[in-house]
Amino acid sequence: MTAVAFYDDTDALLKSVHYTYDAFDRLIGKAVDDDGDTFVDRGQSFVYDGTDIVLVYDETGSLTDRFLTGPDIDQMLAQENGSGDVQWLLADQQGTIRDVAEYDSGTETTSVVNHLQYDSFGRITHIMLQADQSGIEHGRPTRTRERRKVQLASCCLQIVT
Ligand SMILES: [Ca+2]
Q1: Is this prediction's pTM over 0.90?
Q2: How much distance in Å is there from the Cα of 45 to the middle of ligand 1?
Q3: Does any domain span residue 161?
Q4: N or C: where does the chain have the smaller number of CB atoms within 10 Å of the terminal CB?
Q5: Is the residue at 19 inside a domain?
Q6: For residue range 102-135, what is the model confidence (pLDDT) as tens digits?
Q7: E strand intervals along the chain
Q8: How many domains does the chain have?
Q9: What's the 56 CA to ligand 1 centre distance in angstroms?
Q10: From the CA of 151, how far away is ligand 1's center (Å)?
Q11: By the 8 A CB rule, do 51 and 26 touch?
C-alpha cells in the first residue's frame, strides 16, 4: 500500500496519506494531507538499523525520536524524544516491556514512570502513569503523550502516528 485517500459523499478529497518504501520494502516515509488541499501537513521519515527503526524525523527534518535496540528481534532498550528525554524500557524474561524508567539529569535519579499490563493477546490493558513526584496515577488507556511513547516502545515493529 502506498497511499490511502478519504473522500466524502460528493467525492471531495478529505484526507490522504502517502507511504514511501525503500528497496527492502521498509517504510521510510509517511506524508499526510489532513485537509485534502493536496499539500502535506505533516509527515515522518524513518531511518533503520537492519530491520529496526532507530531514528524518526518529522516533516521539517527535525529528529523526533531515537531508539536504542538490542540484538534480539524487536528488542528495544531505550527511546529518546526530540527534547533529549531518555526512557529505558524494562522487559520481563519474555521480552515484554513491563516498566519504563526515566533518568532525570537535574536530580541525577532514575525512576519508573510507567508500568504496563497486557491481556493474553499482548494488547496493553493498563498503563500506570506517574502523575507527579508524589505518587502513581493508576491509569486507564489514554491518548496522552506518554501513551503514544509507550505504544512506540512496546511495539517497535509498528509505526504509531
Ligand atoms: Ca493539507
Answers
A1: no
A2: 18
A3: no
A4: N
A5: yes
A6: 987 778 888 999 999 999 998 888 888 764 333 3
A7: 3-7, 13-21, 27-33, 42-49, 52-58, 63-69, 76-81, 86-91, 97-104, 109-118, 124-132, 135-137
A8: 1
A9: 21
A10: 26
A11: yes
